[in-house]
Specification:
Fructose-1,6-Bisphosphatase, Chain A, domain 1, 34% helix, five-stranded mixed beta sheet, 7 helices, globular, 278 residues, seven-stranded mixed beta sheet, D-Maltodextrin-Binding Protein, domain 2, alpha+beta, 2 domains
Length: 278
């Protein structure tokens, strides 16, 4: 685990503890609140999970900053990502799934230094899948090393995607047009409702590529380092990355609210070209 071993171990430990809370509440009735002007939900379990994560990490690393979805737990959240060592937390990624007892939910914990994510932990306590990685240390599922998909042909690709919470026509119509182009050019599409787990699915080779608009830093931070360490590509879906030129994609700004995650550079380039086609 190298120089980031202490941070990775802490992330794994508290993700498992938060996972126990999520698992215990999974089949029980939930108290649901809706965020202002949104279809986005939050439950008491989201808040409880976030609280124990922040309290533990704050106790271990009192000088670190925190960026997260709910921002309610202990008044420790920052509003923007800075150069400071920062824990980027989604206490339940896939809250809608959690409410409906659909088993794709995860605790997502990333750790950044100078805005670069160097540690990621994504834990699905319902399926008992623990994904984790640290910079230069490889990516793992339940202690077994994982690698992203080698598929390079769009027609052979299984594509994961998400839908925005904003359901205005100006947002939904362009998205449906993208989906039409994708469906015409890939093998099949999946929508599992957890950005963190979608990125881990690409890292595992379970799906070949994933993209989404409207996500946040806490949705993708942990998954981005897990996928990168599994040999995949994480970048911006709005770039026009030429088929020739540099091998590596431009680095993703995790605060850009959009992401494309591919198993390899060649497939990602082809997908981007198709995405931008008229």
């Amino acid at each position: 685990m190298g120089e980031y071993a202490t941070f990775l171990a802490a992330g794994i430990k508290i993700a498992k503890e938060a996972g126990e809370i999520v698992r215990a509440a999974f089949y029980k009735a939930k108290h649901i609140e809706f965020k202002e002007n949104s279809n986005d939900m939050v439950t008491e379990t989201d808040k409880k999970s976030e609280e124990i994560i922040i309290k533990f990490l704050k106790g271990q690393f009192p000088d670190h900053s925190f960026l997260g979805e709910e921002g309610t737990a202990v008044g420790e959240m920052t509003e923007i990502l800075t150069d400071a060592p920062t824990w980027i937390i989604d206490p339940i990624d896939g809250t809608t799934n959690f409410v409906h007892r659909y088993p794709f939910v995860a605790i997502s914990i990333g750790f950044s230094i100078k805005k670069e994510v160097v540690v990621g932990v994504v834990y699905n306590p319902i399926l008992n899948e623990l994904f984790y990685a640290s910079k230069g240390g490889g990516a793992f599922l339940n202690d077994a090393k994982i690698s992203a998909s080698p598929t390079k042909n769009l027609k052979e690709s299984l594509v994961a995607l998400g839908f925005p919470y904003n359901r205005d026509d100006s947002v939904i119509k362009p998205h449906l047009e993208r989906i039409y182009r994708i469906l015409k050019n890939c093998r099949e599409i999946r929508r599992d409702g957890s950005a963190a787990l979608d990125m881990c699915s690409v890292a595992l080779g379970r799906v070949d590529i994933y993209f989404e608009y409207g996500i946040h830093a806490w949705d993708v931070a942990a998954g981005s380092i897990i996928l990168a360490e599994a040999g995949g590509v994480v970048t911006d879906p709005d770039i026009k990355w030429e088929m020739s030129g540099e091998v590596n994609a431009p680095i993703l700004d995790i605060c850009s609210r959009k992401v494309i995650a591919g198993g390899n550079a060649e497939l990602t380039k082809k997908f981007l070209a198709m995405l931008h086609s008229e």
